[in-house]
Amino acid sequence: MLVSNQPGLHPATHAAQPSARFADYVAIARPDHWIKHVLIVPGVAFAMIMSAAGPIDYATLAERLVACLFVAMALSSANYTINEWLDAPFDAMHPTKRARPAVQTTMSAGVVFAQYILLTSVGMLAAHTLGYSFSSVAIVFAIFGVIYNVRPIRAKDRAFLDVIVESLNNPLRFLLGWFAVTPHVAPPASILLAYWFGGAFLMAAKRVSEHRAIVEAGGTASLAAYRPSFAVYTQSSLVTSCLVYAQGFAFMMAIFLLKYRIEYLVVIPLFIALFAAYMRLALTPDSAAARPEELMRQPALLIGAALTMALFGVLSFVDLPWLNGLTSSNLIHLGLGG
Length: 338
Prior knowledge:
Largest sheet: none
Number of strands: 0
Radius of gyration: 22 Å
Order of helices and strands: HHHHHHHHHHHHHH
């Protein structure tokens, strides 16, 4: 259930704030965050490569992918709507999020709730046209939006659980892309777990940057006022969790490539470089890691990610037989004299 903004945390009273305009209600749906749905693309690509579904009807596939993207945008915007509304009293304690419309204007709970219901409903209706598997993932996506944002659970207020729940959106997006292409075959668990670990690394790194910015702006006392989980976190615990998630990603990727295509091993150095670059970015003052929608302004990261995906595509079709020896359990005989 949606609740009104908590008194006492806003920098100004409702009476002193302007009423929200139509543009403000659109803003809390965060269409600028739709760029995150690029995470659907690997699901589409791997489904086309791995499912062996036979000849592809590209016209039908294009229609399904448009519907898939529409579902992802509608459901994520529904989740963002309740996210920003319920977070408003806490965002008022954040050095940059205090500028958000839900903090700076007086919004109608009825309009916010209607917007959430409308976006969820149209998203679910569109998901239903793509089959049972796809619509099941869409339902889970919407449910986790409630678990993450709404009391009594409100996972985002619980240290470490917040990262675990939020990063589940990554494998769910992968599944949306996969089931848009092939609704009758499930992807490997290893790639889904790798996707989750990768997302957990990104979300933990985001918190590293946010934690540092809040402390610098208002001291440690501001951490709990912004979010209860941040009163539990420390810079060392967050950085340590990033290391754990990065190792989990590498381990699950190793299982995936050894089971399905050893050629993908060539991509691992690029992944290592990307993870290192993102961690370095998260440790930089006023980092874009705290605002993922601004990562489009990081050309080095974008180029690195594009090269990684391009190499994945090439290695899906180019065989490198000399790598097969890495899967052998035989010891290497040096042939030296005794």
